[in-house]
Specification:
Length: 113
């Protein structure tokens, strides 16, 4: 538990009596998105654009990536330069935002049930 203290900040429980929520600190969103990107390579192969897309869609679906969180990821990636396999950070963020908007919003899915 001591190791978690540096990774998350506790949010007080809502008045409804539900269990407390754990929210990742801002730096964890880029790390988690990068991790999800690397994991996505297992299914999409070496395609960097698809890996970015799968990562943000997974984050949105699982609830750990919001629009505000994606903006934190983009701020982190903004200085990234283009190389043989990656677009520059600004271009990648534009594509990730598009994938995020196109992904299913988990709230909509719950409302349908």
């Amino acid at each position: 538990m001591a190791r978690l203290a540096g990774l998350a900040s506790r949010v007080p429980p809502p008045m409804s009596g539900r269990a407390p929520l754990w929210q990742p600190k801002p730096l964890l969103r880029p790390r988690r998105t990068i991790y999800a990107h690397e994991c996505a390579h297992q299914t999409v192969g070496s395609d960097e654009v698809k890996a970015d897309c799968v990562a943000v869609q997974r984050g949105r679906l699982e609830g750990w990536l919001t629009e505000a969180g994606l903006e934190q990821v983009c701020e982190f990636m903004r200085p990234a330069r283009q190389d043989r396999q990656h677009f520059n950070g600004v271009q990648r963020c534009g594509m990730m935002r598009q994938c995020f908007r196109q992904s299913e919003n988990p709230r909509n899915r719950k409302a349908e049930k």
